[in-house]
Predict the 3D structure of the following.
Amino acid sequence: MYRFRLIAEVKYGHFKDYLELSNKMNELFRERGWSTFTTFTLAIGTANEVIAEADYPDLATWEKEGDAFQSDAEAMALNRAFAEHTVQGSARSELLMTLPDTLA
C-alpha cells in the first residue's frame, strides 16, 4: 500500500476557506472515482498546519490518478486556489509505502 501525504501551513484567518477547498476537492475526486483525502490538523505542534492523506493499493494507481489529476482543468483550478490560503514555502508532500512482513 502507498500513502500520499500533503502537508501545509494555512495562513491565519484562512482555515475555514482552506477546509472548504479541501471538501470541494474531495467532492471532485469522488466524482472522478479517485482516492479521497482525510485531512488532519495537529493537536499539539505547528499552529495551522494541515496534513491530508490518501491511500492507494499500489504505485501504478497513485501514478495513474496523479496523471489524471494533472491533466484535469477543474482539479488544477481548485489546486491553484489553495495558494491563496497557504503560507508560501510551507507545502510539501511525502509518499509512504508499507514494509513487507519480513525482509530477506
